[in-house]
Every structure is written in C-alpha cells, then in structure tokens.
C-alpha cells in the first residue's frame, strides 16, 4: 500500500492535476469517441425522413401549425374580452387586470376589494386648468392687486 505524500510545491500540484486531467480525457474519449459520427448519422437520418414525407404530410404539418396559432389568437381574444367585462363590472383598471395571471373574475374581485378603482387625486381649486391656477385664491388675488400684477 502506497503512503499518501503531501503536495509541497506548485510543480507537484501541477503534475497531479495534469495526470488526473489526462485520465479523465482518456475516459471521455473511450466513452464518447464516436459522438461526431453518430451525430452525422442522426442528421442524415433526419434529412432522409424530411425528404421522404409526402406533400400531404407536409401540408398536414403546416395546417397543424396554423391551427395552433389560430387557437392561441382565439384564446388571447377571449381573455381580452373577459378582462374588459370583469374590469367594467368591478370598476377596476383593465390594464392592471390584464397583467395578472389566473382567473380574471377572481382577480377583478381582488382588485376591487383592495381599492382597485385607484385613489383619486385631490380636487384642486382650479380643477386642473393651469390657466386658472391661483385666481380663485383670495389671498393670491389680493397680493396680485396690491402689487399691480394681473
């Protein structure tokens, strides 16, 4: 039985690692040495299968893809309609509801219970019209008159 000797220099460590790496590469080469050959055969087989398909099979494949795309579009349209209806019924934001996954009706009820209508901005005296800003405030109006500004 050989006795384990500690590695003391960088050269010893490099030699041990190099030997281990070579051993792993040999093992991989034995196990997967024919990978490129098998991959080439598989590609050739796939090309032969595609070439042997009849025109009917190609048309059927194309139709299946088109049906899948149509179904996806129908599902999307139905979800958009459900979102619009649930948003209207529950008074919630349709954009926010559309971003949620899961059952649309349950999500709409949840948003409504959480105050989904959104917080209204506080009402301002000028009702948001910047041309009227400050003209309804008597103090500002008095200051403008006192300093001669309109």
TrEMBL record:
Instruction: Return the annotated region ranges for Disordered.
Output: 115-137
Comp. bias (Basic and acidic residues): 124-134
Keywords assigned by UniProt?
Coiled coil
Where are the coiled-coil regions? 7-90
Keyword hit for Coiled coil: yes
Q: What is this protein called?
A: DUF4355 domain-containing protein
């Amino acid at each position: 039985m050989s006795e384990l000797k500690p590695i003391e220099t960088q050269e010893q460590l490099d030699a041990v690692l190099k030997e281990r790496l070579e051993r792993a590469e040999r093992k991989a080469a034995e196990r997967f040495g024919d990978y490129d050959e098998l991959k080439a055969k598989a590609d050739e087989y796939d090309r032969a299968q595609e070439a042997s398909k009849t025109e009917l099979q190609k048309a059927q494949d194309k139709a299946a893809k088109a049906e899948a795309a149509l179904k996806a579009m129908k599902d999307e349209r139905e979800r958009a309609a459900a979102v619009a209806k649930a948003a209207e019924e529950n008074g919630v934001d349709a954009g926010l509801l559309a971003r949620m996954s899961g059952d649309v009706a349950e999500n709409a009820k949840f948003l409504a219970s959480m105050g989904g209508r959104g917080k209204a901005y506080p009402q301002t005296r000028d009702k948001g019209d910047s041309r009227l800003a400050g003209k309804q405030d008597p103090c500002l109006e008095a200051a403008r008159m006192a300093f001669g500004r309109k």
